[in-house]
Amino acid sequence: MLADVDVFDSKCVWPPCYLGEACNKASDSKGVKTTLGMEFASGIGEVDALLKQLLGDTSGKQWEGVSAAAVLLRLLDSHIALTYLHGPPLQLPENSERLVPDPVVTGCAFGSFVRVPSKSNLKELLLWWLNERQPETREGQRFLSYLVKPTNTQFEGWDFFVFITMDGRLRDVWGYQCKQDNTKPTTATTSTIKKSLKNVKGDEQLKALGIAGARVWLQGVWPSDG
After folding, report:
1. pLDDT tens digits for 28-41?
2. Of the candidates 115, 101, 94, which has an alpha carbon nearest to the alpha carbon of residue 175?
3. Beta-bridge partner residues of 174
4. pTM value surpassing 0.85
5. 92 with 59: CB under 8 angstroms?
6. Are the CB atoms for 78 and 101 separated by under 8 Å?
7. CA 110, CA 108: separation in Å to the nearest integer?
8. I need a surface site. Which of 52, 103, 107, 162 has the fewest CB within 10 A?
9. In 3-state terms, the chain is what percent helix, strand and coil (to 5)?
10. Taking a C-beta distance cutoff of 8 angstroms, is the pair 203, 123 a contact?
């Protein structure tokens, strides 16, 4: 049923120019939709849009697109391992495993890819999630992972998030900031993130929920034309 795309060979490396189209094909596959679910099919279809940021002129957006696609594929791999292969996800180096929440490392069903156009900071995003979204649960699956992508270009501090729910309740929020640079983050570059977190900690509703959080800095050096 999954013959459309072989995603199980750990030695297979897809160039981005082909990976996006392969993911589109998987997204349209009836076998993928039936076996892995509509949410998975929709999620893998988002990989192509993220990789197309490579076509832009802004290097920051290029790195952001690659980073978000890589994290999304990790969430989808975890879903395949848990719901179809009934085993652990593909093993990553220890340093790479630290870039995603623990349930994703051990096996976690994929909830969905969520684009959020109207929110401008983490506090607004969390309150929207908690107060306006219907909690989702699935039989036999305690944990669900979501890749949450604010599309407001003025969103404060973060490029995208991984949310983990447990029995429908938001449990983990991991925020990702992507930078093309070859130096360590400075106080100036992280000040916006600190401001965003301070606003969240000052909200009584959010504080009472005890949501676990993590900050992930994804840094890369973009190759020069020379």
Report:
1. 999 999 999 999 99
2. 101
3. 162, 214
4. yes
5. no
6. no
7. 6
8. 52
9. 45, 20, 35
10. yes
3-state secondary structure of 116: strand
Which residue type, as a one-letter code, is found at position 96? Answer: S
Residue 174 dihedral angles phi and psi, to the nearest 5°: -110, 120
- In 3-state terms, what secondary structure has residue 138? strand
- For the segment 70-116, what is each residue's pLDDT rounded down to a tens digit? 999 999 999 999 999 888 887 777 778 889 999 999 999 999 999 99
Please give the Cα distance from 113 to 134 (Å, whole number). 15
The number of CA neighbours under 13 Å toward the Cβ of 177 is 20
What region does 107 belong to: left with phi over 0, alpha with psi -120 to 50, or beta?
A: left
